[in-house]
Amino acid sequence: MDYELTENQIKLKQDAALFCDREIAPNAKLLDDCPRESVGKIMRENLRKLAESGFLASGLGEEKLNLFDQYIVGEALSKACASTYLSARASAFLCGGILKLSGTSQQKARYLFPLLKGELIGALAYTEPDAGSDVAAVTTVAKREGDGWLLNGVKDMVTNATIADILLVLAYVDNSTAADRAMSLFIVEKGAKGLKADAPCEAMGMRGVPLASVTMNNCAASGVVGDELGSGYRQLNDILELGRVGIAALCVGIGASCMEKAVQYAKTRKAFGKPIGFFQEVGFKLADMFTYNDLGRLLALKAAWAYSVGDPEAAVIASCAKLLASEGTSQIADWAMQIFAGHGYIKGRDIERLYRDAKFGKICEGTSEIQRAIIAKNELDKFLQV
Ligand SMILES: Cc1cc2nc3c(=O)[nH]c(=O)nc-3n(C[C@H](O)[C@H](O)[C@H](O)COP(=O)(O)OP(=O)(O)OC[C@H]3O[C@@H](n4cnc5c(N)ncnc54)[C@H](O)[C@@H]3O)c2cc1C
């Protein structure tokens, strides 16, 4: 067993941390605070910087997905600004990753390479007002119109909706067959007839994400990912499954930022004549925070390793990583807030933002309940095989 990162991975980690601290972290508070209409412009600038530095395409440039590089850059970026990571990831990994795994060579040339270079911004739209965890319940439909397709439906809470040049939209093509063969992912370009991004959402956390609903009214799609009808459900599940490593990175990054700020505060804030870190109750919180975060990181890297060697349990390990890292980070943010006490609870403080952002991990891309259901099913299936 070898826990060491390679020389290249260590360098990537150092370079990403330096870059994100210098270029991305300074905008995190502004993205959280500014009027919702300004978020898109600031995020575009962050994505441009990430593309220029090469970090936007980390882990996606080689022939196979490299989840280690994805994780390493994801943690550093989330520590600096979790919203920026979510937006960058929606474009390059969710939208780009689907095209990389399933797109035709023309689709890769037209969309994937520009997405990785930051020339285009992408989004993936599957959630609807009445369908979240239960993806099969979506009601967006595609109907044939000559050689093309027209989409009708509403997608809810779409990351990058207000700045996307290209959206991948999940829709039913055939209601008469099982959901996993009845849906496709449609490519919709910005400016398509019948496409409308609604006003930006006022979210509790992750407020830097350009988030909005999207309405499609006889909206013209430019094509189907991979040109093969009925593969959308599988394509979506494949990317969300691999993406659990990235959501673990998001959570550990937020946790690392909480840790850093809480440690500094525990060393400098004094009560009863000494720094509060010397009180065992405060020190023990720091110890537990470190332990939870390190476990989240270890499990995420184990999941990346499991995928890299083709371990049949890779998907379930990724679920464990997402579950543990997200639950851990919520707890870490809560402890950090407790250490800052009233000074953390004031609007505009870093800990207050991190506390709100931390909650997101348990909700997104397969809630904690859904991860537990996946892990439990895996265990029960093993038991049934005995
Ligand atoms: C900041 C942000 C960004 C987002 N970005 C995107 C995006 O880019 N694209 C996109 O399509 N969506 C996006 N979403 C939506 C997100 O993916 C959904 O919120 C998430 O999938 C959960 O769906 P839901 O909110 O509808 O919850 P629901 O599915 O309605 O769940 C409600 C509750 O019921 C529980 N539940 C549901 N089913 C089960 C079950 N079988 N067993 C046990 N418990 C269950 C859930 O765990 C949860 O506690 C985003 C959301 C946010 C907040």
Protein described:
With 386 residues, the chain is an alpha+beta fold. Helices cover 57% and strands 14% of the residues. It has twelve helices and ten strands. The strands form three sheets. A four-stranded mixed beta sheet has the order 1-4-5-8. A four-stranded antiparallel beta sheet has the order 2-3-7-6, with helices on one face. Strands 9-10 form a two-stranded antiparallel sheet. The longest helix has 37 residues. Bound molecules: flavin-adenine dinucleotide.
- The structural domain count equals 3
Task: Tell me how many strands there are.
Answer: 10
CATH-wise, what's the superfamily of the largest domain?
A: Butyryl-CoA Dehydrogenase, subunit A, domain 3
According to CATH, what is the class of the largest domain?
A: Mainly Alpha
Order the strands across the largest sheet as they lie in space: 1-4-5-8
Q: Are there runs of 5+ residues with pLDDT below 50, and where?
A: none
Cα-atom radius of gyration: 21 Å
Helix content: 55-70%
Shape: globular
Average pLDDT confidence is 96
Return the string of H and E elements.
HHHHHEEEEHEEEEHEEHHHHH
**Head-to-tail CA distance between termini:** 29 Å
CATH-defined fold name of the largest domain: Butyryl-CoA Dehydrogenase, subunit A, domain 3
Strand count, sense and barrel status of the largest sheet are: 4 strands, mixed
Catalogue the ligands. Answer: flavin-adenine dinucleotide
Number of helices: 12
Strand content is: 5-15%
Please identify the structural class as seen in this structure.
alpha+beta
* CATH architecture descriptor name of the largest domain: Up-down Bundle
